[in-house]
Amino acid sequence: MPLALCTLSHSPLYGINDPDPSVLNAVDAAFDRVRTFVEDFDPELTIVFGPDHYNGVFYDMMPAFCIGSGARAVGDWGTEPGPLPVDRTAARRLVSAVLDDGIDVAQSEELHVDHGIAQPLEFLFGKRYSNPLVPVFVNAVGLPLGPMQRIRLLGESIGREIESWNKRVLIVGSGGLSHDPPVPRLDEATPEVLARLIDGRNPSPELRAERQRRVIEAGKAHAAGDTSFQQINPDFDARIMNTFADSAVSETDSWTTDWMEKNGGHSAHEIRSWVAAFAALSTGGSYTVTNRWYWPVQEWMTGFGMMTAIQEA
Ligand SMILES: O=C(O)/C=C/c1cccc(O)c1O
Ligand SMILES: [Fe+2]
């Protein structure tokens, strides 16, 4: 049974700070094509790799990656709060298989996910989806980060296991390409921010609104040409997408944290979700990229890309 893949950027500023209608319409048309691709594939299970932005996972216990054998959405940025339809059996089997492969993945029976995982699921399946899935948190903001090879190996391990299930499994990778939105950072945190990075679960509505307002303002300034932000880098983004299109996933092993940040900004590490997704797809042999789209969207503060791919029979 073939596996299918869809990798896509997310931005909470979608629907809030929108670009010119010609760009927005093109993005929405691409979303329609991706949704048709998913509907045609008709997945029996979805594995979604995605980051968190200190809304669900904190420095009180920061894993490199974590499989959710139960999960709930925190409901940031207008995403639907509440439990996710996790296939617990599948998730627990994945945890065992990955551990057997020598990768020390964490497990959560109640993984808290933010827009990094919730938004792509809503883009693909609508607001109240009930199709079975397994969320996999991939640390992309809580520095320090381990080498890229580890995320490839995680993806391959998951790919080998799902391959053996003889099911139609859709693999989703969520994350921006080059981007540098104002996500707080440990190395420059004030004591007040540090406390929130360690244990910031269930913030007051005022605190959440204040944080979101800051990001909206940053998006507006970015779109107005404020150069104090690291700029979107379309050349870097093309290189990333070409690597996946060329089936050269193992080349990502040589991408260093420094290189990613210099060229793509601090949040470029979200590309780790794409690496895991393509690595999982690649375990069954060759794959074909069926479509790709890209726009540098200043209003959303991110290089916004999407790719779909399917295993070759
Ligand atoms: O508010 C946050 O924590 C993150 C915002 C953001 C903005 C643009 C692109 C992204 O991938 C983000 O997560
Ligand atoms: Fe993000």
Q: What proportion of the residues form beta strands (DSSP E)?
A: 15-25%
What is the H/E string? EHEEEEHEEHEHEHHHHHEE
Q: Quickly name the level 1 CATH class.
A: Alpha Beta
Report the average pLDDT across residues.
Answer: 97
**Ligand types:** the ligand O=C(O)/C=C/c1cccc(O)c1O, fe (ii) ion
Counting structural domains, the number is 1
Measured on Cα atoms, how large is the radius of gyration?
18 Å
CATH 2nd-level architecture: 3-Layer(aba) Sandwich
In CATH, the homologous superfamily goes by the name: LigB-like
- End-to-end C-alpha gap: 8 Å
Number of helices: 9
Structural class: alpha/beta
Judging from the principal axes of the Cα atoms, what is the shape? globular
Which features characterize this protein?
313 residues, alpha/beta, Protocatechuate 4,5-dioxygenase, Chain B, 19% strand, binds fe (ii) ion, iron
Quick take:
The longest helix is centred in the first third of the chain and has 21 residues.
Structure, explained:
This protein has 313 residues and is of the alpha/beta class. It has one domain: LigB-like (Protocatechuate 4,5-dioxygenase, Chain B, 3-Layer(aba) Sandwich). It is built from 9 helices and 11 strands. The strands form 2 sheets. The protein has an 8-stranded mixed sheet with strand order 6-3-8-2-9-1-11-10, sandwiched between helices. A 3-stranded mixed sheet has the order 5-4-7. The longest helix has 21 residues, at 21-41. The mean pLDDT is 97. The chain binds ligand LPTKUXOY and fe (ii) ion.
